Amino acid sequence: MNEExxxxxxxxxxxxxxxxxxxxxxxxTDPNYSRQWFHTLIAEKCQDLLxxxxxxxxxxxxxxxxxxxxxxxxxxxxxTQGWKTHGSLQSGDYVFGADGHPRRVLANSGTYLWPCQxxxxxxxxxxxxxxxxxxxxxxxxxxxxxxxxxxxxTQQIFVRRHRRKPYIPADAVLQNAETELPFDPYVLxxxxxxxxxxxxxxxxxxxxxxxxxxIALGKIxxxxxxYWRIRVEGLCKAARLxxxxxxxxIPMTYLLADASSRWALLxxxxxxxxxxxxxxxxxxxxKRGRLAEDVYTLLRSLGIKxxxxxxxQTLWQGTVAKKTRxxxxxxxxxxxxxxxS
Length: 341
Hints:
Elements: H1 3-20, H2 22-29, H3 37-50, E1 76-79, E2 82-85, E3 94-96, E4 102-104, E5 117-120, E6 126-129, E7 134-140, E8 148-153, E9 164-167, H4 185-194, E10 195-196, E11 201-204, H5 206-214, E12 219-224, E13 227-231, H6 235-241, H7 252-255, H8 259-273, E14 274-276, E15 281-287, H9 290-301, E16 306-307, E17 310-314, E18 320-329
Antiparallel strand pairs: 1-2, 3-4, 5-6, 7-8, 7-9, 10-11, 11-13, 12-13, 14-15, 15-18, 16-18, 17-18
Helix pairs in contact: 1-2, 4-8, 8-9
């Protein structure tokens, strides 16, 4: 059976269903129409009214214009091509769903004025959402049922009493196809943490130099007592081509790489500039700036809950600077080196 004949049979089956069902009638009259759950609900209610299944002979449908589950238009959204704002998303873009897999954007309703409420999360991140925006949260209403998963609107989250703070399930690992990266992600992570900018050189103290010798990373020289340099072939050129000479950050190609590559990148960062105690409490400390923000995003892309509080640090000659302490619980293979906080 050729494709044309198969298509004709499928249309005939749909035509027969359309005679008896208003939702299928919508599909038959416009094959390109994207029927959503609320379209189906309205069509089914109209069908019930037509067939006398309702306890009334009237049906009123209230659909306020531009009434949606909106987010503020400048809310950042990670797509498969990088960061975009919620208002700039277009049909054909791919964002990440609750399961971590890419989902195609079907349409953008445009921007409009609407009341909003600010939602702040435990990690310090906040965003603006419409009171009608829907959330899937775990709640404990002190009704002896424990935590239950429920879908609520912003304005409903705190209507009922909570015995424990509600939380959003956000532990999915973002899934992307495996791609070839310009440089080994683990080595790049080492350099981002403890590398010399504009050089393909990683620095190390006495306590870690044995590890670097064991992995034969590159040529090792003693710069001064207790201070070693490891020169990695090709690293300087790769960093320059990735735009890292002016400011250290995680390139978008690495933030959107496959999960195993992102794990390797995190391992390199932790081995160079992170600590982890025997209880699995991990910390990555970095001066306030783009790299710290990228490491936080990297952790979230791996399904790891993290906090990023700011603190003051006294540097050389009493200079005080702000640093970001990214705190999280370790998972298997979070870092190779034996470090403690």
